[in-house]
Design a protein that fits this description.
H+-coupled_symporters, single chain, transport, Growth Hormone, Chain: A, about 450 residues, MFS, Putative proline/betaine transporter, mainly alpha
């Protein structure tokens, strides 16, 4: 069976939505596995790349390199977003996973401080810069692909799988960490065991590279491809014409990305360093909470297809603004597995209002010709300023002796985004492309 697209596009095989959903998501899983595994294993390899001394200082240096990776995301957002608008979503998806495979392999073989001094830290830094470049384009490529490959009434549901796959990637990293913690001694993990997850990530990315080469391009992009020359798509000049939407993406991302990284990547270390839980127990709490969080995403995404995007965003903004300080304070004094799990779940339920739909909201703000770049660049800038620095800011507050200041920082970021959620337009019924306009116009012509 074939379908014919508007604008003279040649017939092609009919699309299978679930194939596109799985194909777009599985690569995202590996991308974010590699991205988050750096953070989750940092407690084991921090001492390998810096002189012996204060453990918090070593971790702070390692998280500094983690944050630097975020500052490459705007560059990746521009380069790979431009690629996605000019050469297709599939081309951008393939490029991002290739970069991620190389960066994971570099970390896996990076030499230690004892053997080559600070050169190992330089290799680590280069790998993180490549990861930042890759992830800067991956978010927009997968968000745009999943949104455009979905039927109009199921975009919220389909795009929610971006955070399903992101969380699944983190769970794979945490799951492997749990296995290694229970099969290796602590000394072995600190010595060389931490390299295993990066080897796994490099191999997984190679498999996904093959899978992504077989994806079909989205109809929205194909129609636009025949309507405008490559030089007219994905330009900064065209993006500047949508500067209001550009600013909107930065503002609506601000609170969400800080809250997300607080309740996911940072919380494992927070439970260990502040609440005094063992590393094993803290990892298990995060694993269980994130598993529930992952299954919440499609349900919330489907809900947004019924009631709209803004109600979920507003619920997140209010919940994060008012709930962060009491939840984080309680977590800092938690004394057992179940209370810690309940509190972490409470925070993640709030964050779901943002994570389940933020990809589709951003994609619905821009036209097809500049959609990948429009999603990628402002989102990457917001993450560089707020998401990538979240753990570093948290550790800085802790080292300064005013750890509670970080809780108020997260609440303030959520408050800023809440103002945007309340005042922005609803995007659920946006027509994304000429391919959607044609069927809608057909009855009127009859």
């Amino acid at each position: 069976m074939t379908t014919t697209l508007p604008g003279g596009t040649p017939p092609r095989p009919a699309r299978r939505p679930w194939k596109a959903l799985v194909g777009g998501s599985i690569g995202n899983l590996v991308e974010w596995y590699d991205w988050f595994v750096y953070s989750s294993f940092a407690v084991y390899f921090a001492a390998s790349f810096f002189p012996k001394g204060n453990a918090t200082a070593q971790l702070l240096n390692t998280m500094g390199i983690f944050a630097v990776g975020f500052f490459m995301r705007p560059v990746g957002g521009w380069l790979l977003g431009r690629l996605g608008d000019r050469r297709g979503r599939k081309a951008a998806l393939t490029a991002t996973v290739t970069l991620m495979s190389v960066s994971a392999l570099l970390i896996a073989v990076a030499p230690t401080y004892e053997s080559v001094g600070y050169f190992g830290a330089v290799v680590l830094l280069v790998a993180r810069l490549l990861q930042g470049l890759s992830v800067g384009g991956e978010y927009a490529a997968s968000a745009t692909y999943l949104t455009e490959a979905s039927a109009p009434g199921r975009r919220g549901f389909s795009s929610s799988f971006q955070y399903v796959s992101m969380t699944a990637g983190q769970l794979c990293g945490l799951g492997l960490q749990i296995v290694l913690q229970r099969t290796m001694s602590d000394d072995t993990l600190h010595s060389w065991g931490w390299r295993i997850p990066f080897i796994v990530g490099a191999l997984g990315a190679a498999v996904v590279f093959y899978l992504r080469r077989n994806l079909l391009e989205t109809e929205a992009y194909e129609v636009e491809e025949h309507a405008a020359a490559p030089a007219e798509r994905g330009t900064l000049r065209d993006l500047f014409a949508h500067r209001r939407e550009f600013a909107l993406v930065i503002a609506l991302t601000m609170g969400g990305t800080v809250a997300y990284y607080t309740y996911t990547t940072y919380l494992t270390k927070y439970l260990s360093n502040t609440a005094g839980m063992s590393k094993d127990d803290a990892t298990l709490v995060s694993f269980c909470a994130l598993t529930v969080f992952m299954f919440l995403q499609p349900a919330a995404g489907a809900l947004s297809d019924r009631i709209g995007r803004r109600p979920l965003l507003i619920s997140f903004g209010v919940g994060s603004m008012l709930g962060t300080v009491p939840i984080m304070t309680a977590l800092g004094n938690v004394d057992g597995f179940w209370p810690a799990l309940a509190l972490m779940l409470g925070g993640l339920v709030i964050v779901t209002g943002y994570t389940s739909i933020n990809a589709v909201v951003k994609a619905e703000l821009f036209p097809t010709r500049v959609r990948a770049l429009g999603v990628a660049l402002p989102y990457a800038l917001a993450n560089a300023m707020f998401g990538g620095t979240a753990e570093y800011v948290a550790l800085w507050f802790k080292q300064s002796g005013v750890e509670s200041g970080f809780y108020w920082y997260v609440s303030a970021c959520a408050a800023v985004s809440l103002v945007v959620y309340v005042t922005m337009r609803e995007t659920r019924d946006t027509v994304l492309s000429r391919a959607e306009q044609a069927p809608a116009a057909a009855p009127a012509r009859g």
